[in-house]
Amino acid sequence: MRFYSTNNPSVRVSMEEALLRSLPADRGLYMPETIPFMGADFFNSIAGGSLADIGFQISSALFKDSIPAHKLDDLIHHAFPFDTPVVALEDGKTHVLELFHGPSLAFKDVGARYMAAMMGYYLEQSNREVHILVATSGDTGGAVAMGFLGVPGIKVTILYPTGRVSELQEKQLTTLGQNITAIEVDGSFDDCQALVKTAFTDFELNQQFSLASANSINIFRLIPQSFYYVRAYGQVKHLGKPVVFSTPSGNFGNLSAGALAYKMGLPVHQFIASTNLNYVVPQYLQTGIYSPKPSVETISNAMDVGSPSNFVRLVHLFDDNFDTLKQVLSGYFFDDAQTRQAMAEVYQQFHYVMCPHTAVGYLGLQSYQQTNPDVCGITLATAHPAKFKELVESVIHTPVEIPAALEELMNRPKHSFKMKADFAEFKDFLLQTA
Ligand SMILES: *Cc1c(COP(=O)(O)O)cnc(C)c1O
Description:
Blueprint lengths: L2 E3 L2 E6 L1 H7 L8 E3 L6 H7 L5 H13 L5 H11 L6 E3 L5 E5 L9 H19 L3 E6 L3 H10 L5 E8 L5 H8 L5 E7 L2 H13 L1 H6 L2 E3 L5 H4 L2 H12 L6 E6 L4 H11 L6 E6 L4 H8 L23 H7 L4 H7 E5 L2 H15 L5 H16 L4 E6 L7 H8 L7 H7 L6 E4 L2 H10 L2
Parallel strand pairs: 5-13, 6-7, 6-9, 7-8, 8-14, 10-11, 10-13, 11-12
Antiparallel strand pairs: 1-2, 1-3, 4-5
Helix pairs in contact: 3-4, 3-11, 4-5, 5-6, 6-7, 11-12, 12-14, 16-17
Bound molecules: pyridoxal-5'-phosphate.
Family: Belongs to the threonine synthase family.
Pathway: Amino-acid biosynthesis; L-threonine biosynthesis; L-threonine from L-aspartate: step 5/5
Pfam families: PALP (PF00291), Thr_synth_N (PF14821)
């Protein structure tokens, strides 16, 4: 399988190049040269298949010419020891696709663990070493740290803004040790991101290290996210209704992965782009005009994105055709008061606890079902409510339990390096710890 750039489809690179370099030089986004059409037999056969089983079959269709089947099978079953179950709420119309059963309790585990598995495979072949740099505002760093922990040939340095991530998130970044290093930057998330971006363009650092990124525009984080849409379809197909997915969105990687599954032939009736007040995509669907804005802060903060980096890919998957896109994609947005109210309502009515991002997805699905009642609605639960413990507890007035594996992290000592938002200092640090 080769990959092309959305900016120049005649440029083709190897799987290894797309995996390790993340971004083409022309600033486009990598896409697989062909998206395999999986066909009705496949979608009829997957009801009992686990996330890993489905992941293996789709990965085989994509990469059988690059990685031997038995190796691919091992890599994927190792990457996905957890499942992505669909839970039905008692209202008889809402299904929740729980994507938070991985180690960092957010859907980003799926992409990070698959990417780590693939990188580990290529580095083992070549005896190379790669140094991954990530800036995080919370969730990405945890998934990357836990996904890449102990993978031979990989060193990870995570930069996060001091005092701006939740306690649980910080524990995920700073207590693992081994090949994971955390830097606490005296500054904002944007400062962290600027340091990482400058590092990628620094001549000396690039001579010294093979630098790589693990952010969500890497196509290898996106591909595995298509698996759980397929897995969810397998769990609700017996209901015999048209299937609708509502995806709480920020950078639109998750929704693009749904579009990828659709291109593979997954029979989806409608996708719903659900956002907070960072509503550029719902607005685009209304008006046909795409106008990115500076982000605004909300309680669903992993979706506070004003210029979604996967928008290009989403539109590209629908053949750059607005009418095609509009037929399969609806958009809705909600403010914090509506989000809190939805969290409270779902808890009161169904005793189900949603994180604020999931509640935005739930609201989007409700809006769509008002005019389209006879569908099977699935909303994606992107994080475990315990990740946003204080906020959730303040809304539902009931304690939220932290799962045992994470409770254990809470007791471990924190290790981080403190640093100013200063590139010279960051560069020295990298060169000295090489
Ligand atoms: C990252 C994240 C999102 C947004 O996903 P995108 O792929 O960027 O649209 C939503 N919810 C949670 C909990 C997240 O961590």
